[in-house]
Amino acid sequence: MKRILFPVLILLSAVVFGQQISDFRYITLTDTKDFANDKFGLNSLLSAKLQAKGYTVLGTHRQSWPADAASDPCSVLQADVENISSLLKNKLMVSFNDCKGKSVGTFEGRSNIKEYEAGYQDALSAATNIFPAYNPVARNSGTSAAPVGVVQEVNSGKTTAKSEESAPALKNSAQTYSNGSSTLNRIIISETEFILANPKNSVPYAIFRESTRKGVFRVQLQDGSKTLGYTEESNIVIEKATADGSFSREVFRQIPSKDLN
Fold it and tell me: Which stretches does the entry tag as region Disordered (predicted)?
């Protein structure tokens, strides 16, 4: 009997003590073939969702990484978004791999929205809803997380971990804004949160979360600094500190879709 139980105990220990996504502070996003160049704003949306859960999203160039991440690349997870849609549903898989290519976690989300952009963003939001928050001591404190290699899927009939069906997505037609020098896409995350993102950069230019006053937002900029922003007619305004301690206005004006062609 002991000889039978021993390998079973080893297997259980590997599941319980294996690394979890929540153990990693740093995550970098892969520019995959399915959604290259931040197609449909998915990498920007994923980046914002990860930052909201306490992770630090790094750029693809290691020279820009913090010293502790650059000196230890194995402290950084790689996230990848893969299109696994069927004929009837938009469906995505988000995979996290360590520096050796070993899977640390895989999450799936699906959407009933037929349009590609809104459907993919809805499916990604569904998947990110079940991401664990950054918490490197989670497994030592008794909180549960997905075991290594387990696929979590939203709206799945499989016998894997599940979550409730995602709420209907907000209408999120493409919106483009410019401050005269930079052109950014506005991606709506929820009724009170959106991001401005450069399609060529996986880290959002700015993340907006509505304050207690409607139309006024707490803004986190790409460099990690925080400020305020607000909407002004069809424009988006960000307040930025100047060298003398005062604030200037960075105004992003919406570009009509007809002018983008």
Answer: 156-178
Q: What is the CATH number of domain 19-153?
A: 3.30.160
Contact 144, 210 (CB under 8 A): no
Backbone torsions φ then ψ of 84, nearest 5 degrees: -125, 35
> What is the model's pLDDT at position 257?
67
45, 46, 50, 55: CA torsion to nearest 10: -110
Q: What's the predicted TM-score (pTM) here?
A: 0.59
Cα separation, 16 vs 241, in Å, equals: 47
Q: Where are the domains of the chain?
A: 19-153, 175-259
| Per-residue pLDDT reduced to its tens digit, 24-74 | 999 998 877 778 777 788 888 888 888 888 888 888 778 888 889 989 999
Between CA 135 and CA 54 the distance in angstroms is 8
Mean pLDDT across 178-195? 87
Q: Please give the structure tokens belonging to residue 193.
A: 């949160």
What amino acid occupies position 2? K
Question: Residue 123's closest CA among 97, 148, 86, 160?
Answer: 86
Number of Cβ within 10 Å of residue 139's Cβ equals: 17
Distances (CA, A) of 68 to 26, 62, 65, 76, 171: 10, 11, 8, 10, 40
Q: What is the pLDDT of residue 251?
A: 95
Q: pLDDT tens digits for 106-115?
A: 999 988 888 8
d(CA 190, CA 167): 10
> DSSP label at 164?
P
